[in-house]
Amino acid sequence: MQPLMFLLMSASLAAATQSAQSIGPATVNPPKLTLAMTLRVQVGAPTELGEVPRGRRRIIPILGGTFDGPEIRGKVMPGGADWQIVRADGLAELDTRYMLQTDTGKLIYIQNAGIRHAPPDVTKKLLAGEPADPSLVYFKTVPTFETSASELQWLTRSIFIGTGERHPAEVVIRVWRVE
Fold it and tell me: Positive or negative, the Cα torsion across 30, 137, 94, 85?
């Protein structure tokens, strides 16, 4: 390498290193989570479609329920469902869609995609509709909302995550707003 080229490269590297050091390590603050609502969704017996290319297809009807949070409360409307795929490894892919109605009569559409998995013996209980310890189950969702109500637009303008518990006759989802 020619001496001039070596000097130029060395000077460039030194400048880049000094610049990076002057910036310093970035301070990263994780997002804050605020409880937006707790959904208590009553579910019916699953319809088993059987094995399909991606796994075991199950459709679980939504019968009703309630929801409440610091800024919102109401009822879960009957008529939605959870269109699940249970893969061979026991992981359940969740695609739940239903309607909420606030106690002031406003309608909200919720689509809640997620996953649920647990040790095989716990998964067997869940699929059979038997009680299982929620602490043994990884159950997370990403709910999205649609509404025409102006006072509820905060639901459409935020990111949410959910933590779930499956019980024999209901699913409890705690929905957290990412601040």
Answer: positive
> Tell me, what's the pLDDT at 10?
47
pLDDT value of position 18: 52
Cβ neighbours for 83, distance < 8 A, ≥ 6 positions apart: 57, 59, 95, 96, 97
Counting as low any pLDDT under 50, the low residues of the chain are: 1, 3-17, 19-20
Token pair 């303008």 is found at 157
Model pLDDT, residue 2 = 53
User: Which residue type does 119 have?
Assistant: P
Q: CA 152, CA 158: separation in Å to the nearest integer? A: 11
Contact 102, 66 (CB under 8 A): no
Q: What secondary structure does DSSP assign to 71-104, as a single string?
A: S-EEEEPTT-EEEEEE-TTSPEEEEEEEEEEETT
Q: For 8-36, give the DSSP string.
A: HHHHHHHHHHHHHHHH-SPP--PPPEEEE
Distance CA 174, CA 85 (A): 22
Question: Could you give the count of Cα atoms lying within 13 Å of 24 in the half-sphere of its Cβ?
Answer: 2
CA 102 to chain centre: 21
How far apart CA 66 and CA 40 sit, in angstroms, is: 5
The pTM (predicted TM-score) of the whole model is 0.81
Q: Provide the residue type at 114 as one letter.
A: G
DSSP state of 118: -
